[in-house]
Design a protein that fits this description.
The complex is a heterodimer of chains A (215) and B (148).
Chain A lengths: L9 H26 L3 E3 L3 E6 L3 H4 L6 E11 L3 E8 H14 L16 H22 L3 E3 L3 E6 H13 L4 E11 L2 E11 L4 H15 L3
Helix pairs in contact in A: 1-4
Chain B lengths: L1 E2 L3 E7 L3 E7 L4 E7 L17 H14 L8 E6 L14 H15 L4 E6 L5 E6 L5 E5 L6 E2 L1
Classes of the chains: A alpha+beta (215), B alpha+beta (148).
């Protein structure tokens, strides 16, 4: 195990994974309410790993993605990224368009993709995961106004990963596969607490353990 | 570091900067994918090629040790984008800092910058051809590649 994930005991890692599973449940509810249709979710993959290893999880660093970036503020500082592969963007926009006609503009010739729907979904999903963290271990987390880019995943993440990997850091990467009307929508949520937020997270996990017992 | 007819590629360049140095006489050269402007954070396990100052000096030393003459060496630079445009950004982002740091270090080492494709807010891929020293830049969303 790498020194960064050694910051956590196996039990604490289980707690983090469990929090993220609660977040996944919240995410399904949020997507269902947003898209007004049945939404299912395959078992999510939750990785707790050093920031420097995030790139190794990504299949193809040059694949195009919509990447929504939000600052994480409150009891923990850091950043969160909501990522949708290019091939799934249009599906998601189309699903949202059926519920909210005129909300988003599909790209025409010489027209840039309007990603406001993706930004809004990222905004909501990040919020529900933060709520899960709050419910589980009492940390109050908020995110800043999202900004986005449509680019290669490696390019989109390089600044955050480089800056944060200078310190002892860990990241939580959640791979979700939503099943919506027989369509599969893959998303990634990357939560990177800054170095001085790891201890408050560990302390909060300790308090949660006292309340919930072993994970 | 390598020589003609080889090709060196780097992909997914955002705020990072790729620097190539090349000796057209011997057709030897090298590339560094630089992530940060200064090596203040360098520790024993870090790669010197991660930081502008140490990366350029390392590349230069290697090329000189391969028999190149200082006055023949030229450099090119690609990258340094600002991937997210934030209205509340204060000060230059990492991308701009990387660009100005590369210019400064190249100036200090007296290596002329013979081409660049920097800034903007899109990711880039780079191919560096050692047979001619040309650098082909593919930018996300752009149909045409750029040669520098």
């Amino acid at each position: 195990m790498n020194k960064n994930t050694q910051l956590f005991t196996e039990e604490q890692l289980d707690f983090i994974r469990e929090m993220m599973n609660v977040g996944a449940g919240n995410a399904v509810t949020a997507m269902h309410q947003l898209l007004m249709c049945p939404v299912d979710l395959k078992i999510p993959k939750v990785h707790v790993l050093p920031v420097a290893r995030v790139s190794s999880i990504i299949d193809n660093p040059t694949s195009l993605v919509a990447c929504v970036k939000m600052g994480m503020v409150g009891d923990l500082g850091g950043a969160a990224f909501f990522i949708v592969p290019e091939r799934h963007i249009k599906r998601l926009i189309t699903l949202a368009e059926k519920v909210y006609p005129g909300l988003s503009q599909l790209p025409g010739e010489n027209q840039e993709e309007d990603l406001s729907v993706i930004v809004e979904i990222g905004n909501i999903l990040c919020g529900v995961y933060f709520t899960a963290i709050h419910d589980f271990c009492g940390l109050n987390l908020y995110h800043t106004v999202p900004v986005y880019t449509l680019d290669m995943i490696q390019s989109a993440l390089d600044e955050a990963l480089v800056k944060l990997s200078l310190q002892i850091q860990m990241a939580i990467l959640i791979e979700n596969k939503f099943v919506i009307k027989e369509d599969h929508i893959n998303t990634l949520l990357l939560i990177i607490p800054q170095a001085n937020s790891v201890k408050p997270l560990i302390d909060a996990l300790g308090k949660a353990k006292k309340v919930y017992g072993s994970a | 570091m390598t020589h003609s007819p080889h090709l060196i590629s780097s992909t997914g360049i955002g705020s990072c900067v790729v620097v190539t140095i090349y000796d057209p006489r011997s057709k030897k050269g090298g590339m560094a994918h630089i992530m940060l402007p200064g090596s203040n954070g360098l520790n024993g396990t870090d790669s010197p090629y991660k930081y502008t100052d140490t990366a350029i000096v390392c590349l230069l030393k290697k090329l000189l040790s391969m028999g190149s003459a200082q006055q023949d060496i030229v450099a090119k630079m690609v990258g340094g984008a600002q991937m997210f445009l934030c209205s509340n950004d204060t000060g230059p982002g990492i991308g701009k800092q990387n660009i100005s740091s590369v210019r400064r270090i190249l100036g200090q080492e007296q290596i002329p910058l013979s081409g660049e494709e920097v800034g903007g807010n899109c990711g880039r891929n780079v191919d560096f051809y050692l047979d001619s020293g040309r650098v082909i830049v593919k930018t996300t969303g752009e149909k045409m590649d750029v040669e520098i």
